[in-house]
Write a sequence for this structure.
């Protein structure tokens, strides 16, 4: 009996020792894991700051001055969503989404000056961009301090898509109707007629003497449009012409008139159309 009691006591003591050992080991592992997580977290916090050392911050006023100087090696890279870029952006900026920025920029000249524009210059997203571009050899990377939001708040110029429901955009536009345009074509020489439809639509029939510059190409082809002439913009129903007028206004061309009733009404009235290019 005494022997069994002694055996049970020994077993209890061994079990207690095992429980304490396992508990201690678990506590040690948990503490180590927490310390490791803390170290990773701290390192992650430092990473954006380290990456940003490879980029230069530029203020909205300095960027405005830089743009006015027209440097040939300056590229504005807008990494906002395509829809937001299309709605409004800086003149001559390129929209390259973050997801494809490395592939899209790899062929570009790595010695040029690149200004990264996002919504509000978030350190986390900019750090990823700067790190990715630095890793593939880009040397001169800057980012717009405060992003597109700051640019707008400082009343700097932008190119807007043209919203017919916007009072601001409507205030940029002057209209003309088909009868008045026909009269002007017969009596005035200082006119340029721009058809902002697609090429195939233009070839199917356009106003005599018109030049075809598709709406989405206006920005990059603006140097083809003379400043010293009265500009008439038209499409089929007036919507694209309205958008074109807003964009030209934003680009500093204030002498444009929009054919409000479009080519559709020109056709209905039986006025002359030219086919082909």
């Amino acid at each position: 009996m005494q022997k069994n009691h002694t055996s049970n006591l020994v077993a209890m003591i061994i079990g207690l020792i095992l429980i304490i050992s396992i508990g201690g080991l678990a506590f040690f592992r948990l503490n180590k894991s927490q310390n490791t997580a803390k170290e990773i977290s701290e390192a992650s916090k430092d990473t954006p700051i380290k990456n940003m050392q490879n980029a230069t911050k530029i203020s909205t006023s300095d960027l405005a001055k830089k743009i006015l100087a027209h440097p040939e090696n300056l590229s504005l890279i807008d990494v906002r969503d395509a829809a937001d870029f299309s709605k409004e952006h800086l003149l001559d900026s390129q929209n390259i989404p973050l997801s494809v920025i490395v592939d899209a920029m790899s062929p570009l000249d790595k010695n040029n000056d690149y200004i990264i524009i996002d919504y509000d210059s978030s350190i986390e997203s900019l750090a990823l961009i700067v790190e990715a571009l630095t890793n593939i050899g880009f040397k001169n990377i800057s980012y717009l301090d405060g992003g597109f939001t700051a640019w707008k708040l400082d009343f700097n110029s932008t190119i807007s898509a043209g919203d017919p429901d916007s009072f601001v955009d409507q205030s940029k536009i002057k209209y003309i109707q088909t009868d008045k345009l026909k009269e002007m074509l017969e009596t005035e020489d200082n006119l340029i007629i721009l058809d902002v439809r697609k090429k195939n639509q233009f070839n199917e029939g356009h106003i005599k003497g018109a030049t075809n510059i598709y709406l989405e190409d206006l920005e990059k082809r603006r140097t083809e449009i003379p400043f010293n002439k009265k500009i008439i913009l038209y499409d089929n129903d007036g919507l694209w012409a309205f958008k074109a007028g807003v964009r030209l206004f934003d680009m500093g061309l204030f002498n444009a008139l929009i054919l409000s009733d479009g080519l559709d009404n020109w056709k209905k009235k039986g006025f002359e159309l030219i086919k082909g290019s």
Remarks:
- The two ends are 115 Å apart (CA to CA).
- The domain at 167-268 is CATH 3.40.250.10 (Oxidized Rhodanese; domain 1).
- The mean pLDDT is 85.
